[in-house]
Amino acid sequence: MADIPSSATGTQAGGVKYATRDKTYFEKRGLQRYAGIWSLWALGVGAVISGHFSGWNFGFATGGWGGMLVAGVIIAIMYLGLTFSIAEMSPALPHTGAAYSFARSSMGPWGGFVTGLFENVEYVLTPAVICTFISAYFGSITGLDTSLYPVLWIVFYAIFLALNIFGVALSYKVTLAVTLISLAGLAFFYISAFGHIDFSRWALNIAPDGSELPEGGGDWFPKGFGGVLATLPFAVWLFLAIEQVPLAAEESVDPKRDMPRGIMLGFATLALSAFLVVLLNPSIAGVGSFALGSSLEPALDGIRAMFPDVSWATSAFGVVALIGLVASFHTILYAQGRQVYSLSRAGYFPSALSETHAKYKTPHFAMIAGAALGLGVMLVIWYANGGGGSGETQLGDDIIGSVLLNMAVFGAMLSYIAQAVSFIILRRKLPNIERPFRSPVGVPGAVVTIIIAAVTLGYQIQDPNFFKGVIWVIVWCAVGIVYFALVGRHKLILSPEEEFALEHAKK
After folding, report:
1. Is the sign of the CA dihedral 56, 202, 296, 307 positive or negative?
2. pLDDT tens for residues 98-126?
3. How far apart are CA 268 and CA 373, in angstroms?
4. Distance between terminal CA atoms of the chain?
5. 126 pairs with which residues across the strands?
6. What pTM does this model have?
7. Which domains does the chain have, with CATH numbers?
8. What letters, b where the CB count within 10 A reaches 16 and e where it falls short, cover 374-393?
9. Do residues 500 and 93 touch, judged by C-beta distance below 8 A?
10. What InterPro entries has UniProt attached to this entry (predicted)?
11. Percentages of the chain per state (helix, strand, coil), in multiples of 5
């Protein structure tokens, strides 16, 4: 990376200033190229796959089975528009910054930073949500006292931070292995479920008032169309974080060729699995939509019901489900590190966070800082809700899982809107840049993404159970904006994303 030219060191549009850095700065922040198409596919699928074991099922409580199905279809359409958009933008702007990079080139430094903040909320909090599900599955398998869950969280964060730090190749190999194991476990689950389903009796067992119908046979939409819309935030969990794949752009061997293929193959894999889990899991005899509406381990509940006299089957699948959760935990920690790294390398966050490991070339400071923040939020909520006793602690675990899930989804929706807006602006503002892949749904697909994401946000805000979480996201973003206005905007650095944006702003 060359030194910043003198023409870029003055005050730029948006009131930002660039600080001069020599080549040593970027040499200390180098990344290693390793990922091919299947590594990128595994990064996308692995990030999401935990959402097919836990989290999505809370939507049964708000919309019933039909509400969950239709919400899932609507959200799938939103993600189709989003993934096509980022599949076009990521090879055209192959930088680690991803959402921040897209917004920086389209909406300037303020737009880039605010978009980066939205995405930061998602990637800091999503691993924390997954960690609560990991503790639930692990506790179910081992009988671990729930009062020890915070210790378990710390252990998991430490182990998978280490795996992410000790080399890109190791991280991707772990990602591919755990993703394949998870998909194999889900395939076994789906095949087994076909012989145990009683759809009307179990999937349709929620009454309009939210109570259980002992004999089933209820409406597909017990809470009407309003229930469908209220379920949108939970359906997001079936796809949340596939958009992280572009964060690997500077570690991809050939991002212009492999990035679009990896993203779209990942989406297709997840869409098939999402349909199957929504159809089959609640239809299994002895399970049902009502019970799944509050379950932290819905897939494991299904295995227990299908194989009540085969204790080893429950334990074995519990391990597979745990691996699925680990797959997402591991891959989103990866994304979290790259997201913080990109913003700090450009000076939006403190630049010290962007130094990479001298031997392994991984952004270890960024990963540690993001993990510490996510773990800290978990612990604060845990002890604020009576952590310590078994009964109270389990309640605290439920609160962490549901509230943090909605906080992560809120940040993600804001990020999706910003990325879709970036796509539309880049089509108009930079029509002639090289685009190795063009979205077949184009601007209309991006508009649909914006509309669905905005509706999802609206229903999150209306839900009193999650409004506090939304407020804390707004507070985090407000603090970040104040920091950038007072400090960060005066210390920007000409990273690849900034260099690209400044060069094309002159054309």
Report:
1. negative
2. 999 999 999 999 999 999 999 999 899 88
3. 33
4. 21
5. none
6. 0.90
7. 6-505 (1.20.1740.10)
8. bbebbbebbeebebeeeeeb
9. yes
10. AA/rel_permease1, APC_superfamily
11. 75, 0, 25
